[in-house]
Design brief:
Elements (H helix, E strand, L loop, with lengths): L1 H7 L10 H13 L2 H33 L1 H14 L8 H8 L3 H25 L3 H9 L4 H38 L5 H10 L3 H23 L15
Helix pairs in contact: 2-10, 3-4, 3-6, 3-8, 3-9, 5-6, 6-8, 8-9, 8-10, 9-10
């Protein structure tokens, strides 16, 4: 369809470049190292921000999920901050961290933290009390209760939240790199647009999609029955 639209010249080739031109642009960006360098830069920012969000989101989520008073104290604040778009924090990120990796990582962290936190709190609260009663019958310590009851019970929900949060993180890193840094696939998109190199823009878009697909497939492996015993286990 794309090729046919290009042949029909419905749009200016500079506005919608044909597939052959995009393939050539892909080869150029690979040859000069820009595509690899910028892909690594984006992956670095997403990895740091995402895994910080996962770590803190799970830890705080378990704490609030098991601490009723704490959950009541902070629930309203969490629900207030959660709907705010991470992109709304861009002015503050630039003021606090300046132009550089820290600003982008901060925005990625925000985009992933609240989904992870909320999902963990809900998952902990949904653990049947029967499981804790069984643990008490076996005289489980707090550590054993966490290891053998809480963690296995919430792991499927956490993996699902990770997949969702990662998708949001990729959306945010593109926007953050358009404003807060001078490298990465998002920066390549905005810089190429300014230079009217829409073929480069499409290459960056395709690269973002492919990297996101590969990472999602990798995380989805955590849902296999050998890793997650509950909920995803085959009957």
């Amino acid at each position: 369809m794309w090729h046919l639209v290009s042949l029909a010249k419905i749009y200016d080739p500079n506005t919608l470049p044909p597939p052959s031109r995009v393939i050539k642009a892909f080869s150029e960006l690979l040859a000069n190292g820009i595509l690899v360098r910028y892909s690594v830069a984006s992956l670095f920012r997403v990895t740091i921000g995402f895994y910080l969000a996962v770590l803190l989101g799970i830890l705080i989520g378990i704490l609030l999920g098991t601490w009723q008073k704490g959950c009541l104290m902070f629930y309203s604040l969490i629900q207030f901050l959660r709907p705010i778009s991470p992109l709304a924090w861009i002015p503050f990120a630039l003021l606090w961290f300046g132009i550089g990796d820290s600003s982008a990582i901060f925005l990625i962290f925000l985009s992933s933290f609240f989904p992870m936190l909320f999902s963990t709190v809900v998952a902990v609260k949904n653990i049947p009390q029967l499981y804790f009663q069984i643990g008490a019958n076996f005289d489980f310590t707090r550590l054993e209760t966490f290891k053998f009851i809480v963690l296995p019970a919430i792991l499927p929900d956490i993996v699902t939240a990770m997949r969702i949060s990662l998708g949001v993180a990729w959306l945010v890193v593109v926007a953050a790199e358009m404003i807060a840094v001078k490298s990465g696939l998002g920066y390549l998109i905005i810089d190429s647009r300014n230079a009217l190199r829409m073929d480069y823009v499409i290459v960056a878009m395709v690269t973002i999609g492919l990297i996101g697909l590969v990472i999602d497939k990798a995380i989805s492996q955590l849902q296999r029955p050998g890793f997650v015993r509950w909920k995803f286990e085959k009957k």
